[in-house]
């Protein structure tokens, strides 16, 4: 126990010091100058304060009032020492924050007992403060643990969705990071950026309700299959909606609206412009960009600069122009996030600082050879394990049913980038076939994406008849 004694009378200080130090474990610091005492009180945490009423410079009432403004002394017992026992002085001291009074004229047992009671009160206040601090720490640790578990569950669930969608799961981490970077570029608050980073991986959770025959179909989808694919935002809303967790509610919002388009041509609600939640507008840019720059068994990856041109070209149509502007402004960070290898993105050792650090990398199992649809057998199992290729690398070769190798032969729109495909081009109302108006510009290999509307494989955002 530490006591602070402030009195301009050396005799009174000596008398009170002797009484206080007679108590076990009691250390006393005394000052005749109230200004010096105030300075030391701000640097040290005393358990009890005794202050004279009448002192030069600062009187006892002003001293107590200042002490109560210091957070530590909000509950610490402060005792007024005075020979003036008038009601006016007592009332003023109580209003300033005095706990009790000691009359200088007190002698013997009474003074000793009153000091003892004040010391007991100070000990009780100190114990309560220590218990409160311990409880605050325990609650903070429990909340942190709960948030970490919530985050880990989200990333594991997202990984399961990606794993079912014939991916190794790195799409999840990249979209989360890209979304966070765009949110930062928009100047959103750090906690909002962090929540978006954690919620974005569940944008396609509704795909767990899509049959494998449609979700994993290597060729183009017919109209009925594409209509089935377009139900996955509603499925995601049903899976995540109504949660008490703010993070899960944000994930539900993203899952439901991330296929809406700025010009109103998206689904499921056909929302226009700012009616689309900002979180979904951000994730839409991140999702499409990652799909464009990711190699799939049925398409090659687009170089980052060419994919950026695609995003710019669809600003104001597919994407919120403000999100595109933020994406372009932070493109060096986007490039770094997209260029990290799996070990760099998701370390398996060292301190755990991110939720994905606790989630293992899932590799696709390589099953025994089995008959594959003509033209769609992957030349090597490693092609399934490679989330992306370096810019400028050649398109992966595909072996047809006779064993000959050709480059991928898909022509899809930029809107195909989120993971599903429109129907065959030779059906009425479909896009132009290669070699006609809209064919790929020179210098872009067949099987890669067209500018400004580049194919990216599976198209959640496309309709079967999109040009």
From TrEMBL:
Task: Using the UniProt record, name the top-level EC class of this enzyme in a single word.
Answer: lyase
- Per the record, the coiled-coil ranges are none
The protein's name is Cyclic di-GMP phosphodiesterase response regulator RpfG
Assigned keywords, A-Z: Lyase, Phosphoprotein
Q: Which SUPFAM superfamilies match?
A: CheY-like, HD-domain/PDEase-like
The HD-GYP domain, residue ranges:
146-343
Please give one Pfam family short name.
Answer: HD_5
Taxonomically, what lineage is the organism?
A: Bacteria, Pseudomonadati, Pseudomonadota, Alphaproteobacteria, Hyphomicrobiales
Q: Does the keyword Phosphoprotein apply?
A: yes
State the organism named in the record.
Answer: Methylobacterium phyllosphaerae
């Amino acid at each position: 126990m530490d006591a602070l004694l402030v009195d301009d009378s050396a005799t009174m200080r000596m008398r009170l010091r002797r009484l206080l130090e007679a108590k076990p474990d009691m250390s006393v610091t005394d000052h005749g100058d109230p200004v010096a005492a105030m300075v030391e009180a701000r640097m040290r945490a005393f358990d009890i304060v005794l202050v004279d009423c009448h002192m030069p410079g600062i009187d006892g009432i002003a001293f107590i009032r200042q002490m109560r403004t210091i957070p530590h002394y909000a509950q610490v017992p402060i005792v007024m020492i005075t020979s003036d026992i008038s009601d006016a002085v007592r009332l003023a001291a109580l209003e300033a924050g005095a706990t009790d009074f000691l009359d200088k004229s007190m002698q013997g047992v009474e003074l000793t007992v009153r000091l003892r009671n004040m010391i007991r009160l100070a000990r009780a206040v100190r114990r309560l403060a220590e218990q409160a601090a311990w409880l605050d720490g325990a609650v903070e640790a429990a909340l942190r643990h709960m948030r970490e578990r919530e985050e880990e569950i989200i990333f594991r669930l997202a990984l399961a969705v990606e794993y079912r969608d014939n991916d190794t799961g790195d799409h999840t981490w990249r979209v989360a990071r890209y979304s966070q970077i765009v949110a930062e570029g928009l100047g959103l608050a750090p906690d909002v950026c962090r929540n978006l980073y954690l919620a974005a991986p569940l944008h396609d959770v509704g795909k767990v309700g899509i049959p494998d025959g449609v979700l994993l179909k290597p060729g183009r989808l017919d109209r009925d299959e594409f209509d089935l694919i377009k139900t996955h935002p509603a499925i995601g809303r049903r899976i995540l909606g109504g949660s008490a967790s703010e993070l899960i509610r944000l994930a539900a919002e993203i899952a439901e609206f991330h296929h809406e388009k700025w010009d109103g041509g998206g689904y499921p609600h056909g929302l226009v412009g700012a009616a689309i939640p900002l979180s979904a507008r951000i994730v839409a840019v991140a999702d499409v960009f990652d799909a464009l720059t990711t190699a799939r068994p049925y398409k090659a990856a687009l170089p980052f600069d060419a994919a950026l041109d695609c995003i710019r070209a669809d600003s104001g149509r597919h994407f919120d122009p403000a999100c595109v502007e933020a994406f372009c402004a932070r493109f060096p960070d986007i490039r770094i996030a997209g260029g990290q290898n799996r070990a760099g993105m998701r370390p398996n050792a060292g301190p755990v600082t991110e939720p994905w650090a606790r989630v293992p990398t899932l590799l696709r199992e390589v099953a025994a050879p089995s008959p594959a649809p003509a033209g769609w057998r992957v030349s090597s199992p490693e092609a399934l394990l490679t989330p992306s290729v370096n810019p400028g690398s050649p398109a992966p070769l595909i072996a047809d049913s006779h064993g000959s190798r050709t480059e991928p032969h898909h022509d899809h729109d930029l809107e195909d980038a989120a993971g599903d495909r429109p129907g065959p081009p030779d059906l009425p109302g479909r896009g132009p076939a290669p070699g006609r108006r809209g064919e790929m510009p020179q210098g872009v290999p067949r099987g890669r994406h067209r500018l400004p509307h580049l194919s990216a494989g599976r198209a959640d955002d496309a309709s079967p008849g999109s040009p």
